[in-house]
Amino acid sequence: MIHDNSQSHHNHNQCIKTALATAETLCTEQGQRLTKVRRRALELIWESHRPLGAYQLLAKLAEEGFNSAPPTVYRALDFLLNAGLIHKVESMNAYLGCAHADKAHKGYFLICDQCHNVMEFDYQDIHASLIEKAAQQGFELRSETIELIGLCASCQSAAASAGASA
Amino acid sequence: MIHDNSQSHHNHNQCIKTALATAETLCTEQGQRLTKVRRRALELIWESHRPLGAYQLLAKLAEEGFNSAPPTVYRALDFLLNAGLIHKVESMNAYLGCAHADKAHKGYFLICDQCHNVMEFDYQDIHASLIEKAAQQGFELRSETIELIGLCASCQSAAASAGASA
DNA sequence: AGAGTTTTGTTATGGTATAACAATTAAAAC
DNA sequence: GTTTTAATTGTTATACCATAACAAAACTCT
Ligand SMILES: [Zn+2]
Ligand SMILES: [Zn+2]
Ligand SMILES: [Zn+2]
Ligand SMILES: [Zn+2]
């Protein structure tokens, strides 16, 4: 596992702080500009481990005085996606901060359909199997969308105790 | 591999014919009604191995005299999805016929980003790894979105010969 | 035929994303 | 440090994806 976002009792301020620091470093190294709106978008996405929709993000930015037209948010998202600082969760049309942006990778996600928290998981072995699978069909793999939907541990226990008391 | 949709030289009429026959059988068995618009939607989706967008499908249906409001097509799509006769490709917001609708499964896809053909591949071993991975996080898996993007064999050779001649 | 159920028609609206071009701001060149 | 150039942001408009809500029609079962 790459990043423990157990969602219940972790120091989430630390998540944000680390992510922002990494973003700074990466952008500086690569001569990319982490402008105000881009930085703030990243912070807002990192406010939780729930993926954030583009228009939700746009609303938050607008509240803070940023321009409120869609291109504002989609440009920021494009930048952050290209920089590897966030991922798009395709099955939710929403965006999630990446906790290990320093390593090039595609996000592999566990999505809880109860609490909507999403955690990213490590995948080297699955990645290898997928490349092989694809190669068997003569297919040259470039990118992956791996999204697993289900119940996270804490929602399972919540459901269990609710069931017991009912 | 479950279904060879090599896209270049296979008998695609056979694909459609088989898919429609399977659809008939399944619907009859389960007391589901494959109405005109549902059947025609399925045929139109099966016209190629490229996923079809809801509004593309709607336009085709409208040309043929079906009602042209969005609910028409989304209802047909819902029916076909629930019946397991088609899959949704999340990363494309588009719909694809399933060639083995008789077995309950989630679609695992290889998507060519050159020609946009999509083929479904078998996944039992990957599926098992994913369940295990999820379980390691205390996660109970319910559903999966697995979409691999890259270059199919024929687009690779096309690119290779183009490169050689240039 | 009548009652109940499923399917379809219709209108309206909400949510996601991009095109195109102008204005501004930051960086690079001189 | 002013000019030139490139990157970013502002603005308007539009395209594409999907669902809510309620009315009408068609089918099923008795
Ligand atoms: Zn956190
Ligand atoms: Zn990541
Ligand atoms: Zn075919
Ligand atoms: Zn399938």
In short:
Chains A, B: It comes from Marinomonas vulgaris. Chains A, B: Keywords: DNA-binding, Repressor, Transcription, Transcription regulation, Zinc. Chain A has helices at 12-29, 36-45, 54-63, 70-82, 124-136, 153-165, and strands at 86-89, 94-97, 108-112, 118-120, 140-151.
Annotate the secondary structure layout.
Two copies of one chain form a homodimer.
Chain A: H1 12-29, H2 36-45, H3 54-63, H4 70-82, E1 86-89, E2 94-97, E3 108-112, E4 118-120, H5 124-136, E5 140-151, H6 153-165
Parallel strand pairs in A: 3-5
Antiparallel strand pairs in A: 1-2, 3-4
The complex binds zinc ion (4 copies).
The structure holds a DNA duplex (30 and 30 nucleotides).
Number of domains of chain A: 1
Mean pLDDT of chain A: 92
Calculate Rg of chain A over CA atoms: 17 Å
Q: What structural class do helix, strand and pairing data of chain A support?
A: alpha+beta
Number of strands of chain A: 5
Gross CATH architecture of chain A: Orthogonal Bundle
Q: Pair with the most extensive interface?
A: A-B, 34 and 34 residues
The CATH topology name of chain A reads Arc Repressor Mutant, subunit A
How is this structure best described in words?
Two copies of one chain form a homodimer. Chain A has 166 residues and is α+β, with helices and mostly antiparallel strands. The first copy, chain A, has one domain: Winged helix-like DNA-binding domain superfamily/Winged helix DNA-binding domain (Arc Repressor Mutant, subunit A), CATH 1.10.10.10. In chain A, 46% of the residues lie in helices and 17% in strands. Chain A contains six helices and five strands. In chain A, strands 4-3-5 form a three-stranded mixed β-sheet. In chain A, helix 2 (36-45) crosses helix 4 (70-82) and helix 3 (54-63) crosses helix 4 (70-82). The longest helix of chain A has 18 residues, at 12-29. Mean pLDDT of chain A is 92; it is low at 1-5. The interface between A and B is medium-sized, with 34 and 34 residues. One zinc ion binds next to loops of chain A. Chain A binds a DNA duplex (30 and 30 nucleotides) through residues 33, 35, 37, 53-55, 67, 69-72, 74-75, 93. Chains A, B: It comes from Marinomonas vulgaris. Chains A, B: Pfam families: FUR. Chains A, B: This is Transcriptional repressor. Chains A, B: Belongs to the Fur family.
